[in-house]
Amino acid sequence: MLSWVEIDSDALKFNIKNFRKILKKNTKFYAVVKSNAYGHGIKEVVKIIDDYVDGFAINHILEVNEIYERTNKPILVMGGYDKNDLVHLLDKDLNRIFLVVSNKEQIKLIREIVPDVHFYIKVDTGMSRLGYRPDSNYFLQFLEYLKPYKNQILGLMTHFANVEDVTEQSYAYDQLALFEEAKKILFRYFPDKKQLFQFHTAASAATMLIPESQQNLVRIGISLYGLWPSLPTKLSAYNIYKNKFQLKPVLTWKTKVVHINEVPANTKVGYGCSYQTSTKTKIAVLPVGYNEGYDRSLSNRSYVIIKNKRAMLIGRVCMNMIMVDVTHIPDVKIGDEVILIGKSETNQTVEEISADTLADLSGTINYEIVTRIHPYIPRIIK
Ligand SMILES: *Cc1c(COP(=O)(O)O)cnc(C)c1O
């Protein structure tokens, strides 16, 4: 294979250990492995961390099929589903697969296909995505509707809208206050189940910055993979923990040079002739493009690392290839290894191209950079 992703299993375990240091005593660690484990390879990641986590969270029921045989831990399905999705649960142990419900329609589907499945009720506290607001009649009516199914209710969950984008967390604290409101209402409707209900609200950033958000379990995605949810989150966490809380990036994306070409000065490069050489230029061609997850917005902007040196992208990102300028790097050969995301260290130098850098260059967030790496690219455990 001409392109592959290396997964650093020690870094995954290191990140989990770091979170354990800041978790309250009885808070469980659920690893969010949706979107092919944020591009890291869901099967590979589950295999590495199964012994170190308390459960897994995914978006879609089809993802249950990918990990069900690889773990005996609980699996929380956080996204939507239809009848033909629920059918996939029929042969599974429903004592460890939990759904999230937001409305009656979902309960009706559940009654029809998997009537015994347990679920969390999603509460909208300010994201305005799934669930109803606890201060609305929708929420009360939904709880009323759920009375006959009370033994299947595991508890409540919500999701924060704004932790990552700010350094002061008043919006999140307002969301938490609404969540506490929702709990009280739930206890009023189901007083006999009060002691049994479980609650969760926090993803990576809230877990670090808002201790009260940790509740019974936390749902850790991006930072399990050693990436910060955002720069404001990184700075805020540093203020709290200094160097006591650290993250190690887990993923390195590599490829190999497939062709080398030397062209004279004033030669156009790539589709649209968007780049023109100013001197005689040695070009290396690499076999990844926007189909593989190397975003087209990185055209003429990003760089890769070859032989511990930066090589700039020249011309547009093609569907399956990019071109880089290697004029200044001696002895580049076909077959030489190239780092697309990751770090290269020698005794004298450290060169790095991080998911954060690529995100900045293409106007997006590190989440999107890693989840877009095509699933067909092999993930290799180191
Ligand atoms: C994706 C997701 C998470 C994980 O978020 P990170 O910021 O990646 O830690 C947690 N909860 C829900 C509901 C999600 O959809």
Overview of the structural elements:
- This protein is an alpha/beta fold and 382 residues long.
- It has 2 domains: 9-231, Alpha-Beta Barrel (TIM Barrel), CATH 3.20.20.10; 251-381, Lyase, Ornithine Decarboxylase, Chain A, domain 1, CATH 2.40.37.10.
- Helix content is 28%, strand content 23%.
- The protein has 12 helices and 20 strands.
- It has helices at residues 9-22, 34-38, 42-49, 62-67, 83-86, 104-113, 137-146, 170-189, 204-209, 231-241, 355-362, 366-371; strands spanning 3-7, 28-32, 55-58, 75-77, 97-101, 118-122, 153-157, 198-200, 217-220, 251-256, 259-263, 268-269, 275-276, 281-286, 303-306, 309-312, 322-325, 337-345, 350-353, 379-381.
- It has an 8-stranded parallel beta sheet. Strands 1, 10, 15, 16, 18, 19 and 20 form a 7-stranded mixed beta sheet that branches. It has a 3-stranded antiparallel beta sheet with strand order 11-14-17, with no helix packed on it.
- Helix 6 (104-113) links the parallel strand 5 (97-101) and strand 6.
- It is elongated.
- The structure holds pyridoxal-5'-phosphate.
